[in-house]
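Re-run with default settings, no changes from the original entry. Doing this only to confirm the output is reproducible before filing.
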Amino acid sequence: MVEASASHPYFDRAVVDALVKSTIDELSLVTWRTTSPRVSATVHEDGEGRPRLLFLINPTAESERASLDLGFAALATDGLEGTRHESRENRLTLSIPPRSVRMLKIDSA
């Protein structure tokens, strides 16, 4: 349970950040960082541990451009638009519209 504080009516950011970090550590989750601090990424893997779906989340009111180091060559297909994005030097770079999530299917190149 996250306690409320005077700094925000719903949560204390430091408490939430600490809970997220401890959960990541406890579950040994792999984190995926983007070049934009305002865009977060999460990856879903198949049964063999291979990344298959990438979600890029932009909660801001402005479009963001972000890169993500995949560590391997890949082709990513947008799940809604069908557009295809090829990684360059194992890095994927995309624009993420404001207040949206991009879902991309990852195929190893």
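DSSP finds one helix and seven strands in the chain. The radius of gyration is 16 Å.
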